[in-house]
Specification:
There is one protein chain. By secondary structure, the chain is mainly α. The chain has one domain (about 20-110). The protein is built from 4 helices and 2 strands; from the N terminus they run E-E-H-H-H-H. The chain has helices spanning about 20-55, 65-90, 95-100, 105-110; strands at about 1-5, 10. Strands 1-2 form a two-stranded antiparallel ribbon. The longest helix has about 35 residues, at about 20-55. About 10% of the residues are buried.
Length: about 120
């Protein structure tokens, strides 16, 4: 369909539209990037909570050990989710994450472990 504008004809639809496959690919890549961002922020938040806890409890009594273990496990879970999401997009080298986010070794060791079942009383 063409529209007349003065002495020139203008195409009603743009000729430079990408095929639907390209648009779908773009949206998939955009969602992958968004998911990576969410996972990265979640990792940052859990690591920050762990660091804040450690800073507030320099000399940690035994009664606080379970709370700290829970924070380490949460950070390990967030790290696992981030690494898996990155690998799904083709980014396979995790060393960059460990350095950039300064992930403690204990968090790296618990990455991917299933959370302990909760005790019911």
């Amino acid at each position: 369909m063409r529209l007349r504008a003065g002495r020139h004809y203008i195409a009603a639809m743009s000729r430079d539209l990408r095929p639907p496959v390209d648009i779908l690919h773009y949206e998939i890549v955009q969602e992958q990037a968004s998911a990576l961002g969410r996972m990265g922020r979640a990792l940052e938040q859990t690591l920050a909570r762990l660091r804040e806890f450690d800073a507030a409890h320099a000399e940690m009594p035994a009664s606080l050990q379970p709370a700290r273990r829970k924070l380490v496990a949460e950070a390990g879970q967030a790290l696992w989710m981030f690494v898996v999401q990155r690998e799904a997009t083709g980014l396979r080298d995790s060393r960059h994450i460990m350095r950039t986010y300064n992930v403690p070794a204990e968090v790296q060791r618990c990455m991917g472990l299933a959370p302990a079942p909760s005790k019911r009383t």
